[in-house]
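> @MW can you paste both from yesterday?
MW: sure, first one:
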Amino acid sequence: MRIADYAATDLIATGLEARDKDDLLQKMVGMLVHSGRVRQSDVLMGELQKRERVMSTGIGGGIALPHALSNEVENLEVVFARTSEPLEFEALDSSPVDLVVMLVGPKLASNVYVKLLARVSRLLQGEEFKQRLRDAASPEEVLEVFRSAE
């Protein structure tokens, strides 16, 4: 299971500015819309917000892993954002978030989606991996961090 197979430079933002969690999620969904990978942004946004209401996807250590299945997305996609400033995300450890890896995909891809979610979650536990994501200066460098971790 390779993260880089589901990521692309046009779905990676370094230094993303956001006011709050919803603004951040909206901007990341906007990246999917701009790239033509999502049909109805409001439907996908609703699925992401519904998941956040169940329990925050801020997993601690400055990391958030928002995710949702929606038929508005044709393929499994990984969207990455490093925020310009850490922001409140209602994380489990109450720490602000600066690294966000969003996973979205069609409902029929649930089996692969769960495996990819587990893979990303395991990688994000590693301090060296997180630091390399924080140090990456461009989308290409972030993609290389994903590639080299596998």
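MW: second:
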Amino acid sequence: MLDAAESLLERDRGPAALSLREVARAAGVSHNAPYRHFADREALLAALAAEGFVRLTAALHAAARRSHAEARGLALGRAYLRFARTHPSLYLLMFGPDVRKSAYPALAAAAMEAFAALRPAAGAGRDPARRARHHAVGAWALAHGLAHLIVDRQLADDFAADDYRALIEDVLEAYDGIRSAPAFSEPANGAGGGEG
């Protein structure tokens, strides 16, 4: 049923038209069958979003394993953006307002695992834990914001000329350069902010 729901989600570009009855029809089961697994439509969407986070986390871990430490942030950013571009409607569901993460512990846990997988992008081994966590949020915000701009088709058409590859590389490399700069990575007088 989750496979059928994801196919419908991607086909219709979002959860608005997704109903349990439609999912049952697409899965080839009776219209009551989904209720054996999901209390309601939101529970189905939560399960689908949780599955999306599990897959995103796996993609991030795979990217981290395949990359050298100095290029890990770029590799994670690429993997994040690749996931969003390959599964745009699932990605928007995962981060959209259709499901309250706090109401679904499995979804909340899967989302936190995905965030934890981004920690290597912040150079967690080089910074105190609090700063590494904040840098991870910065890396996430950058990749997430760029993914949303692309998936929501908010950028000028000429950016898509090379399938966004040059844009993605330039943006991720710019962030990596900023993050590596002394004013960003070293606390100023112990305050942790640089000079400007």
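> thanks! The chain has nine helices and no strands.
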